Amino acid sequence: MRTCQATLLASAALLLAMPAAAQTAPATGDAEPAAEAPADNEVVVTGTRAPGRSRLDTVSPVDVLTGDALRAQGTTELADALSTVAPSIDFPRQAAVDGTDAIRPATLRGLSPDQTLVLVNGTRAHASALLNINGSIGRGSAAVDLNTIPTVALDRVEVLREGASAQYGSDAIAGVINLRLREERSGGGANVTFGTYATKYDAARISRSVRDGETVTFAGWKGFGLGSDGFLTVSGEYVARQPTNRADIDPRGSAPRIRARFGDPELEQGTVYVNAAVPLGDGDWTAYANGGFQQRDAESAAFPRLAGIGNTNADEVSGLYPDGFLPLIGTRSKDYTATGGVRGTLGAWNADLTVSYGRNTIDFATRDSANTTYGNASLRNFDSGSLSYDQLVAGLDLAREYTLGAAVINVAAGAEYRREGFEIGAGQPESYNRAPGARAALQSGAQGFVGFQPANEVDVHRSNGSLYLDVEARLWDRLTLGAAARGESYSDFGETATAKLSARYDVAPWLAFRGSVSTGFRAPSLQQQYYTSTQTQVIGNLPPQETGLYPVSSGIAQALGALPLDPEKSRNYSVGTVVRFGGFSLTVDGYHIRIRDQIALSENILASASQQVGALLAPFNVQAARFFINGIQTTTKGLDIVAAYTLRSESLGNFNLSAAANLNDISVDRVPTSTAALNPAPSLFGRNRVLTIEQGTPRTKIVGAVDWRRDALGATIRAVHYGNVLQPGTVVANDYYVGRKTLIDLEGRYRFTDNVTLALGAENLFDVYPDRTPGTLNNNGVTAFPYYSPFGFNGRQVYGRLNLTW
């Protein structure tokens, strides 16, 4: 019934010319072109290695999102723009979760952020150094930061909504996002966007009108010719954003007021990207290269420390902060990527040799804080350490076509080598130290974000090699069969193999059926295997004790029964249909994904939980420990519906209408309850973690839009409906919901000349908020709204954008 209801709702939205979706290409971008959806015959390169396949001819479901569609919004963040037009992608705007405030992960089909493979021009992108370890969507993952690539640098994005580990390797359990860069020999464009939140929100204790989050974005690109056929495209973007705050009144103390900062962090960011290709001599070989650099400075807030209410840590530094203090967490992320290669023909084979290197470093700073063990002599600002991740990829791909009678068979094969590295650097001693003679009740290190200690430092690497074979045969112009197999060997956990079978049958030019079955895997990341952060505490008259997150290779984790991490394994099934006639197209694809040995971060295992645990931790002077574990088993079932219609009228103008829906249901079938040393293990995986997986992302998301253009005028109206999302607590009484919400976006455009266009718009036009957090569950006023909200909690944003082209 839920499937039928969603199908009817999506179809009605399309027929009523109201909502809009993943296939829409609103008229904006640089030249503000006429409204135009992606052509049905547009060739895609994701999910197939056969040449000439269009998005409606592929064996697998592929969405094509044009750069213009992504840029016709108030947001200038790629991940946010993707989630607005593609219902299978979500981008929660979480807050009060440390580094994840600034480096937020996106999800595909509600699965973990690291279970989606991201490519840039077909080459594997590197992950962020950040490991999400707090109570956020994607807890325990280290994923690719989509916002390191500005939308101005993109020609289009291809989203493969199907398991593809046999074709691309690790991480492609949920699917693949392929970011395709601009390829321009001439011309250029520039735009400036200014936006601000003009909103009113009702928290449990306050009703407040605010204007904040002012954001200015300067972006531009320029194409240059290289020789007679080569190109060089340079793109750049600068973003400056003020923070937002949707905190509630803090009822503590004698003067209740807003003391927290709960919302988007303050941010300053600069990005440069290049993409180039040039023929080599008079032959059929081409050299190509692309790369980019981004520096992002962000500052978010921790929870406030209020003096005068018995908060020992705040009272200890009352000379520095008489009324308490609000620690700020600063992150400076530097992201580098460079790719180069050559492609051409070797006899009858098309060959592509690529080498790519990427690196992400994050430096942490804790500001407006204190190490309270030093009392009023404490520093206020601290260097809290750093994280670094890098990846080197080298690959060779070969492909050729064979013709056997009426059959056309495409054979592709290749090899890949990948080397990864992960480092943790310690902060300054005051960021983690405990002053001699400090009182037992005082926490060690800088309040808000304790620095990494020398004992936390790591510098680890691993490598893997892989071979694949991919065959796709088109028979009798109606039947297409595909098969792929891949074998991988990792230096740390050994070998794994995956396979995929797919088929498509075209009943008629307007109707086709398709389906696939595949196995997939995701290798445990270096961050999951080696990340560690600890804090020293004093309990009574006992010696100083540690608590923290420990790698599975540590003596502490092994004493509690931790085992080396194994790769996650999946089995994916999908079946769908394609309908097209005239200017109308409809795709419906169902999927079933079974994941076993999923990796998760355990709860804190306390020494006080049992005599056995206490005895195991006593030799290490550890009070509590957590570590990564295998053993989660989940089942994901769902349906993707995408419809689009193009209508052209001489009197009324051109219309692009689209509607799409994602229905998604995730169940946790099994969780680990024991380790090699503890059976059962106390609180190994809490109910709130289970419910986050099952209900932390929308089970229903419907996106729709109408895009119109007539002469110099243009407009886009978009509606996004989100199903209910649960923010779970450790017990049922602490659960609360986001609520079912529908957001409306509206943008109008006027083209003054062929080269100058002005756009004005509002996102979340009717100022919709998630259901507020009950006051009983927000006793300090910080988390006024569920930070699991799939659309955030900033309210209405109004914006203007001026586009210039040449």
Task: Explain what this protein looks like in three dimensions.
- The structure is a single chain.
- β29 (700-710) and β30 form a beta hairpin.
- This protein has a single domain (2-6, 14-805), classed as Maltoporin, Chain A (Beta Barrel).
- It is mostly beta strands.
- The strands form 5 sheets. It has a 22-stranded antiparallel beta barrel.
- The protein is built from 9 helices and 35 strands.
Defining traits:
806 residues, mainly beta, Maltoporin, Chain A, 22-stranded antiparallel barrel, five-stranded mixed sheet, 35 strands, disordered N terminus
Low-confidence stretches: 1-38
The CATH topology label is: Maltoporin, Chain A
The end-to-end span amounts to 53 Å
- Just name the CATH architecture: Beta Barrel
**Oligomerization category of the chains in this entry:** single chain
CATH top level?
Mainly Beta
User: What kind of sheet is the major sheet?
Assistant: 22 strands, antiparallel, barrel
Query: How much is the radius of gyration in Å?
Result: 27 Å
Q: What's the average pLDDT?
A: 92
- Per CATH, the superfamily is TonB-dependent receptor, beta-barrel domain
The count of β-strands is: 35
Question: Tally the helices: what do you get?
Answer: 9
Number of domains: 1
> Strand pairing plus helix content: what structural class?
mainly beta
Give the fraction of residues assigned to helices.
Answer: under 10%
